[in-house]
Write a structure and sequence with these properties.
alpha+beta, six-stranded antiparallel beta sheet, 3 helices, globular
């Protein structure tokens, strides 16, 4: 009768019999060993900039912004996945960042969702230019944008055609 008032706790996801579970470190090293000697080449991912969560759920997390178009949302299929418990961020295409190599400029666009996207506390109603140190607020999450590429640096200038071929 003393045990009848106790709550039973069951930890999920730690089954010793799970077939597909594998240590991620071991899995990564096995993948490298399997790929050694193969003719498969992995294209390098050239960073154009970064986003860092400075306030809200996930504070301190960072994301690489690549050349071209990067969708932002909570879903697994998003280039920039912000899934730290802020349910006011849509799963797909809440916002997007684009880097145009020809203009050497970043842009921020709203994905047409109900919750507004803000850049430096101003609502994004159309595509807006995004500058280094700008803040982006999506729901309860505030991010700071840091540009790497721009008028003072471009992967095109540093690596020539290797960069364009890698994309």
């Amino acid at each position: 009768s003393a045990r009848s008032g106790r709550v039973k706790t069951r930890i999920l996801g730690f089954s010793a019999n799970a077939v597909d579970q594998q240590d991620p470190i071991t899995k990564a090293s096995l993948s490298r060993e399997e790929n050694q000697g193969s003719n498969t080449q992995v294209s390098p991912q050239f960073p154009a900039g970064w986003l860092v969560i400075v306030d809200g759920p996930g504070r301190g997390a960072s994301f690489t912004v690549s050349d071209g178009f990067s969708q932002i949302g909570r879903g697994d299929d998003q280039a920039i996945r912000i899934d730290f418990g802020d349910n006011s961020i849509s799963r797909q295409n809440h916002a997007a960042i684009a880097y145009d190599r020809e203009q050497k400029t970043f842009f921020l666009g709203h994905g047409g969702k109900a919750n507004l996207v803000r850049i430096n506390d101003q609502p994004v109603m159309t595509t807006e230019q995004l500058n280094s140190d700008d803040t982006i607020r999506i729901g309860e999450t505030t991010l700071r944008f840091i540009a790497f590429c721009g008028e003072h640096f471009s992967w095109d200038e540093e690596t020539g055609s290797d960069y364009a071929a890698a994309l």
